[in-house]
């Protein structure tokens, strides 16, 4: 099993000013990933997953030395502020790994649908890291450290060391709706 330095919560599409994915834009992302000393990132734009898939395909062809995992950050229904109800889904082939981002309190209705939880988030410095670690233990969730980068230079300011196999094994089987679209896991 190979352990990797991965920042699994980033927003480079936003950081670059919302350009269409191209070899040039992905090269800028890859350059920052390398400068940060990472093996890879997940691209987890808000409510937008196509950019991550397109960037991952470009990286696979032109920059195979860097791992780009497609994903999405979205808000789930529930009580309380939206920032307390956001999750990320990472798309790993036929599996989906889901984690709660920047938790501020205990949300069992969300955590029971997740395989991981952020215990540190570079952008959300006010997050209670002790509580997040307690929730990881209570709900048997993989503890993650991520940047939540909204600017390229923030990528890698916080990252996890883990294997892709662990994410894959803990993930859920990917399902398609009757319309051929992926179903979210909530």
List keywords for this structure.
6 helices; TIM Barrel; 186 residues; single chain
Quickly describe the structure.
The chain has 186 residues and is α/β, with parallel strands linked by helices.
Overall geometry comes to globular
Task: Quickly count the helices.
Answer: 6
The CATH homologous superfamily corresponds to Metal-dependent hydrolases
Portion in beta strands: 25-35%
How many structural domains in the coordinates?
A: 1
End-to-end C-alpha gap? 30 Å
Q: What is the averaged pLDDT score?
A: 91
The CATH topology comes to TIM Barrel
Largest sheet: 9 strands, mixed
CATH level 1 class label: Alpha Beta
Under the CATH scheme, the architecture is Alpha-Beta Barrel
The radius of gyration over CA amounts to 15 Å
Percentage of helical residues?
25-40%
Order of helices and strands: EHHEHEEEHEHEEHE
Task: Please count the beta strands (DSSP E, at least 2 residues each).
Answer: 9
List low-confidence stretches. 176-181
Description:
This protein has 186 residues and is an alpha/beta fold. The protein has a single domain, classed as Metal-dependent hydrolases (TIM Barrel, Alpha-Beta Barrel), CATH 3.20.20. Helix content is 27%, strand content 26%. The chain is built from 6 helices and 9 strands. It has helices at residues 12-15, 23-35, 50-62, 108-111, 129-138, 164-170; strands at 4-10, 40-43, 67-75, 86-92, 95-100, 116-121, 142-146, 160-162, 172-173. Strands 1, 2, 3, 4, 5, 6, 7, 8 and 9 form a 9-stranded mixed sheet that branches. α2 crosses α3 (50-62). The longest helix is centred in the first third of the chain and has 13 residues, at 23-35.
């Amino acid at each position: 099993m190979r352990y990797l330095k991965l920042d699994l919560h980033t927003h480079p599409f936003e950081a670059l000013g919302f350009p269409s994915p191209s070899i040039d834009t992905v090269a800028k992302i890859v350059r920052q990933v390398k400068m940060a000393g990472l093996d890879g990132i997940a691209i987890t734009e808000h409510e937008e997953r196509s950019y991550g898939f397109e960037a991952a395909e470009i990286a696979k062809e032109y920059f195979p030395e860097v791992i780009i995992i497609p994903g999405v950050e979205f808000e789930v229904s529930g009580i309380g502020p939206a920032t307390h109800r956001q999750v990320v889904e990472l798309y790993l082939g036929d599996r989906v790994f889901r984690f709660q981002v920047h938790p501020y309190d205990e949300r069992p209705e969300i955590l029971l649908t997740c395989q991981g939880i952020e215990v540190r988030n570079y952008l959300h410095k006010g997050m209670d890291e002790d509580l997040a670690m307690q929730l990881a233990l209570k709900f048997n969730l993989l503890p993650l450290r991520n940047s939540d980068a909204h600017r390229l230079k923030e990528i890698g300011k916080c990252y996890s060391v883990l294997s892709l196999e662990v994410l894959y094994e803990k993930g859920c089987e990917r399902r398609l709706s009757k319309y051929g679209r992926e179903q979210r896991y909530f």
